[in-house]
Amino acid sequence: MTILETKRLKLRTLTLSDIKTLYNLVFLDKEVVKYTFGNEFKTFLEVENFIKQNCNFDSNLGLSIIEEKEKKQIIGLAGVIECDYLGKKDYEFGFILGKNYWNKGFATEIGQAQIDFVKDTLKEKRVLALAHKKNTSSIKCLKKLGLEYIKTVSTKNRGDRKVYILDF
Asked: Which residue from 47, 73, 133, 157 has the least number of CB within 10 angstroms?
């Protein structure tokens, strides 16, 4: 199911056949995952279980597949999830791209589409994004999208993360 589209990208729900592609593209690359999930995955089975428990197979919320439309090729994960880092219900967006897709504007493009989704579809008044303090590329992208740093929180599974906010 397609969740949203941009000029070059499509965000869609996962299928079981996507797991191996994600494993090779994202989870096997230590440079890609070092600031994302908060832990390394050692086996395909660990990745498969993580994806089945945490990714989106049937909803418009959750970690979903980013697909480059022209090539119909998976380039990473992104999604909007419900959260409460600031003491009330909010929505967080994020993105994880395979290394071959860095520095091509894809993060900014999918990030803006997710912001628009939270504002226009979910009808929320603000959106959050979290980043590891050393993930300078993601922080630069979040600032480019208009988000501002508000505070650092300690998350259960991902460790300490800087919280960025954009009010609409």
From this structure: 157
The 3-state DSSP class for residue 76 equals: strand
The beta-strand segments (E) located in 22-145 are 62-68, 73-83, 90-97, 126-131
How far apart are alpha carbons 121 and 35 in whole angstroms? Answer: 29
On whether the pTM is more than 0.85, the answer is yes
Residue whose C-alpha is closest to residue 134's, from 156, 110, 159, 111? 159
Kindly report, residue by residue over 99-133, the tens digit of the pLDDT.
999 999 999 999 999 999 999 999 999 999 999 99
**Contact, 28 vs 43, CB < 8 A?**
no
Contact by Cβ (8 Å): 116, 127: no
Task: Quote the distance between the C-alpha of residue 114 and its chain's center.
Answer: 9
Three-state secondary-structure class, residue 11: strand
Burial of 146 (0-12, 13-18, 19+ CB in 10 A): middle
Buried/exposed 3-37: b ≥16 CB within 10 Å, e otherwise: bbebebbbbbbbeeebbeebbebbbeeeebbebbb
Residue 9 C-alpha from the chain's centroid: 14
